[in-house]
């Protein structure tokens, strides 16, 4: 059997916790190390998720020769910097959404991935969901006919506002960056598919 893809996680927040829990049940992937700006936090996270190695510096994880890929779960404003550093360190990267703060950063990140011959993927998990695959197949088959409108919405309720990085503009937070990006990504996917399948598109709305 081939060796599982060995992940290192940058960050120890809630999304990193969910990722570690999900990969724990995987057969083809494994989380083998984690890094935080605090050694204590890294150690606590590693202990909670049975991870072998914990680092108190992000750079130390990138220097670990026993990982294949890095999951970047840091605040939005740090995605660009640490994705590029991970790619240049020879690691494949799964970067949490939104991939970057702007288009210029995104282009640079993918250009770096190409030049380093590494894979860079934005972590829109819904794209891998069987329901999404079924929708894509239906559109390819022309099952919905002519595309006239794409309308999307995504919302959730939270009472945690203070110190929440999702609402911190200095960290590139905000509604559009947090969950609005799902709506944009989905709409663009549907329009791209419709055009590829030669279905006329009149207009779309997010």
Describe the protein's topology.
Elements: E1 5-10, H1 14-23, E2 29-35, H2 39-48, E3 53-55, H3 58-62, E4 69-72, H4 79-88, E5 92-96, H5 103-115, E6 120-123, H6 130-140, H7 175-196
Parallel strand pairs: 1-2, 1-4, 2-3, 4-5, 5-6
Helix pairs in contact: 4-5
Describe what this molecule looks like in 3D.
The chain has 206 residues and is of the alpha/beta class. It has 2 domains: 5-123, NAD(P)-binding Rossmann-like Domain (Rossmann fold, 3-Layer(aba) Sandwich), CATH 3.40.50.720; 128-196, no CATH class. The chain contains 7 helices and 6 strands, in the order βαβαβαβαβαβαα. β4, α4 (79-88) and β5 form a beta-alpha-beta unit. α4 (79-88) packs parallel to α5 (103-115). The longest helix has 22 residues, at 175-196. The termini are far apart.
What brief labels describe this structure?
alpha/beta, 206 residues, Rossmann fold, 6 strands, six-stranded parallel beta sheet
Q: Give me the count of strands.
A: 6
Q: What structural class do you assign from the helix and strand content?
A: alpha/beta
Strand order of the largest sheet: 3-2-1-4-5-6
CATH superfamily of the largest domain: NAD(P)-binding Rossmann-like Domain
Q: Count structural domains.
A: 2
Rounded radius of gyration (Å): 19 Å
The total count of helices amounts to 7
The main sheet comes to: 6 strands, parallel
Low-pLDDT regions: none
Residue fraction in strands = 5-15%
Mean pLDDT rating: 91
Distance between the termini: 45 Å
Helix amount, in percent? 25-40%
Overall geometry: globular
The CATH architecture of the largest domain would be: 3-Layer(aba) Sandwich
Q: In CATH terms, what is the fold-level topology of the largest domain?
A: Rossmann fold
């Amino acid at each position: 059997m081939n060796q599982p893809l060995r992940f290192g996680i940058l960050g120890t927040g809630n999304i990193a916790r969910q990722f570690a829990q999900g990969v724990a049940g995987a057969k083809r992937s494994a989380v083998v190390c984690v890094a935080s700006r605090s050694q204590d936090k890294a150690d606590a996270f590693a202990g909670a998720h049975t991870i072998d190695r914990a680092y108190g510096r992000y750079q130390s994880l990138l220097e670990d020769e026993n990982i294949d890929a890095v999951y970047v779960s840091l605040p939005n404003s740090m995605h660009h910097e640490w994705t590029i550093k991970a790619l240049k360190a020879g690691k494949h990267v799964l970067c949490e959404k939104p991939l970057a703060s702007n288009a210029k950063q995104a282009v640079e990140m993918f250009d770096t991935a190409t030049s380093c011959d590494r894979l860079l993927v934005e972590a829109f998990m819904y794209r891998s969901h069987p329901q999404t695959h079924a929708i894509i197949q239906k559109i390819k088959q022309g099952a919905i006919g002519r595309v006239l409108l794409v309308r999307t919405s995504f919302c959730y309720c939270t009472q945690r506002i203070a110190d929440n990085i999702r609402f911190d503009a200095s960290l590139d937070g905000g509604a559009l960056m947090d969950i609005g990006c799902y709506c944009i990504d989905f709409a663009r996917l549907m329009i791209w598919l419709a055009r590829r399948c030669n279905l006329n598109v009149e207009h779309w709305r997010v």
